[in-house]
Design goal:
mainly alpha, two-stranded antiparallel ribbon, 5 strands, three-stranded antiparallel beta sheet
């Protein structure tokens, strides 16, 4: 199929993004189990950052490679022709690339609409007896504590539950949920790296527990008591999360209750002391930039693009 120069560039970028994203997603999926196991041995806040970084890695790295190598090599080495041939496999990959990006943006838009709709009914939820303690919204998050929870919890337990939700706000966890809703899946309307997303959600709850307790035995006991009481009241938190996906609930996962209470009652130091290797990240970034801007890299990339277009 004959395609004009600019459209050919866009087609190549979209096709290359899809193929790179698919490859990186497969690699991340292969190590997801090990990464979650490693995260459970680390401090909860750093574990959450690790799993979030892995979840966002495929689109971010694919975008960097396309914008840093693919597009520049085409603009530098490809002559400005009126129109050139692009093969059907390349067009199919380009269509899939556009589709996964559109599906990701549509998913984020749906989550935002549902959450905004829920926020309009927060006052009604707050005056109900449903077991709801949650932070809803992204840029102006709202704390929702139902009347039933306010009556059931002792003052110190209610304060601990509120500290837990404010810890989510300090970590911008609802914004991170929006980012994960917006990133593309490997294929249109796929499920993405759900295992990593569930692992991140679990670690973010542990991190909020740790931040709310702040090393205090009294606060830990109060938060553990709040968790048990809200859990006995029912599954209102899970119902609220279904209505507002961009939200964090005190009881997001009933299956994790035993582990969270155990962590609060018997805190332990992380098995692995993990330090952010900033100098390693900086060295990799410098080395990557040096490789990208090598003429040989651009020539090799252009050769691969020529093969892709056939």
């Amino acid at each position: 199929m004959m395609v004009p120069y600019v459209l050919r560039l866009l087609c190549l970028c979209s096709a290359l993004f899809f193929l790179l994203h698919l490859t990186i997603t497969a690699a991340v999926a292969a190590v997801a189990g090990r990464a979650i196991g490693l995260a459970e041995q680390m401090a909860a806040d750093r574990a959450a950052r690790l799993l979030l970084a892995l979840r966002l890695l495929p689109p971010v790295l694919a975008g960097i490679l396309v914008s840093g190598i693919g597009a520049p090599s085409y603009l530098w080495l490809e002559p400005d022709a009126a129109a050139e041939h692009v093969g059907w496999p390349c067009l199919a990959a380009a269509l899939l690339g556009c589709s996964i990006c559109a599906a990701g943006l549509a998913g984020a838009a749906r989550a935002a609409v549902r959450s905004n709709r829920y926020l309009r009914h927060c006052r009604r939820v707050a005056e109900s007896d449903a077991p709801v303690v949650m932070l809803a919204g992204v840029f102006r998050p709202r704390l929702v504590v139902s009347r039933g929870v306010r009556r059931a919890l002792a003052p110190d337990q209610l304060a601990a539950a509120v500290r837990h939700e404010w810890a989510h706000r300090a970590s911008h966890d609802n914004l991170k949920r929006l980012l994960m809703a917006a990133v593309p899946c490997a294929f249109p309307f796929g499920h993405g790296l759900r295992r990593l997303e569930r692992g991140w959600a679990r670690m973010s709850e542990w991190a909020a527990d740790d931040r709310a307790a702040a090393g205090s035995e009294r606060r830990s006991l109060a938060l553990a008591g709040a968790l048990l009481k809200v859990a006995r009241m029912g599954a209102g938190g899970q119902v609220a999360l279904a209505a507002s996906p961009l939200a964090t609930s005190l009881m997001a996962e009933a299956g994790d209750l035993e582990v969270r209470v155990e962590r609060l009652l018997n805190p332990r130091a992380p098995a692995r002391a993990w330090r952010s290797p900033r100098w390693v990240v900086a060295a990799v970034a410098v080395a990557g930039a040096a490789i990208v801007f090598q003429p040989g890299t651009q020539v090799a990339a252009h050769s691969l693009l020529e093969q892709l277009m056939r």
